[in-house]
TrEMBL record:
Cleaved signal peptide residues: none
Protein name (Swiss-Prot/TrEMBL): Uroporphyrinogen decarboxylase
Keyword Methyltransferase on entry: no
Keywords: Cytoplasm, Decarboxylase, Lyase, Porphyrin biosynthesis
Marked site (Transition state stabilizer) residue numbers: 64
Pathway involvement of the protein, from the record: Porphyrin-containing compound metabolism; protoporphyrin-IX biosynthesis; coproporphyrinogen-III from 5-aminolevulinate: step 4/4
Gene field: hemE
EC number(s) from the headed UniProt entry: 4.1.1.37
NCBIfam families: hemE
Subunit composition and interactions: Homodimer.
Annotated function: Catalyzes the decarboxylation of four acetate groups of uroporphyrinogen-III to yield coproporphyrinogen-III.
Length: 342
């Protein structure tokens, strides 16, 4: 990481998704989101779709962050307009204490997709594998669905930290094994998405989220078949903990759109790269406004290695594809000009 480049590379969180008409077509053929995600051929097709449209600099596996708890037997389903649900959420102490890491054979469809995608890419761009963080997985596993306040899982943190730590320890072991299997199947970089870490209090975040991300990644390959495997950590809402995150040793830290990029670079220094942090909602603005905001962020980071341009969270389903064209073009062209100012 932090190698000099001719221009700032760019990829987008959720770059394969509902904003593309071709994705909607593939999903319709699959019959459901889960059928799409669990079919390696469809997953490969969807992963490659944005690369056919835009000159992006990386591919990211098309999958879902909830594959691990699904393989644990919690009964994952997706209701139209409601998002993911688990039919067997972790509420009972006996159920929690029985929780164990899943049989990775139940996740074979993910690893098969990674292999197919890597082969189809033919070395054009690197392939990123990923997992949800132990804490973010636990949020869904305990709440049973998405939540605005995470009341049930956060209450468990304070009321029964022993039970929560059992869930998190199990999840950390599972995440580490899951990411290793993705690497062995062909992923060249891995990323941990901590979507709900920012909902935690200071001190609680470090103990119940960051600690278990570090545990998970401590068991993940740093090298495979002679190739360095970068690790990326992204905590949405985690800007106040950049120093703590950097100390855990990731190769890159993902930043959401609330973080000052120049300050983040100064704070992290040369310890790791930074990824981000364009506001996804700004992608709904006219192309010239998108280009101006891209230039602002590139100037904020400055003419230096160690920046991977991305959104501060996943791309909105309402984003016009032509706006992605404008963003990618501006990042590539303007950053090339910045390199020439040396």
């Amino acid at each position: 990481m932090r190698q000099p480049t001719e221009y700032t590379p760019i990829w987008l969180m959720r770059q394969a998704g509902r904003y593309l008409t071709e994705y909607k077509s593939t999903r319709a053929r699959a019959g459901s989101f889960l059928a799409l995600a669990k079919n390696p051929t469809f997953a490969t097709e969807v992963t490659l779709q944005p690369l056919a449209r835009f000159p992006l600099d990386a591919a990211i596996l098309f999958s879902d962050i909830l594959t691990i708890p699904d393989a644990m037997g919690l009964g994952l389903s997706f209701e139209a307009g409601e998002g993911p649900r688990f039919s067997n959420p972790l509420r009972d102490e006996a159920d929690i204490l029985k929780l164990t890491t899943p049989d990775l054979n139940k996740l074979r469809y993910v690893f098969d997709a990674v292999s197919e995608i890597r082969k189809a890419l033919e070395g054009r761009v690197p392939l990123i594998g990923f997992s949800g963080s132990p804490w973010t997985l636990a949020c869904y596993m305990v709440e049973g669905a998405g939540s605005t306040d995470l009341r049930t899982v956060k209450t468990m943190v304070y009321k029964r930290p022993d039970l929560m730590m059992h869930i998190l320890e199990t999840n950390a072991q599972a995440v580490g094994a899951y990411l290793n299997a993705q690497i062995e199947a062909g992923a060249q970089t891995v990323m941990v998405f901590d979507t709900w870490g920012g909902a935690l209090a200071d001190g609680i975040y470090q103990r119940f989220s960051l600690n278990y991300m570090q545990k998970a990644l401590s068991n993940v390959h740093r090298e495979w078949e002679g190739i360095r495997i970068p690790h990326i950590v992204f905590t949405k809402g985690g800007g106040q903990w950049l120093e703590d995150i950097a100390q855990t040793g990731p190769d890159a830290i993902g930043l959401d759109w609330t973080i000052n990029l120049a300050n983040a670079r100064q704070q992290v220094g040369d310890r790791c790269a930074l990824q981000g942090n364009f506001d996804p909602t700004a992608m709904l603005a006219p192309p010239e406004a998108i280009r101006a905001e891209a230039r602002r962020l590139l100037n904020a980071y400055g003419n230096a290695p160690g920046h991977v341009f991305n959104l501060g969270h996943g791309i909105s389903q309402f984003t016009p594809p032509e706006n992605v064209v404008a963003l990618v073009d501006e990042v590539h062209s303007f950053s090339r000009k910045l390199r020439q100012t040396l």
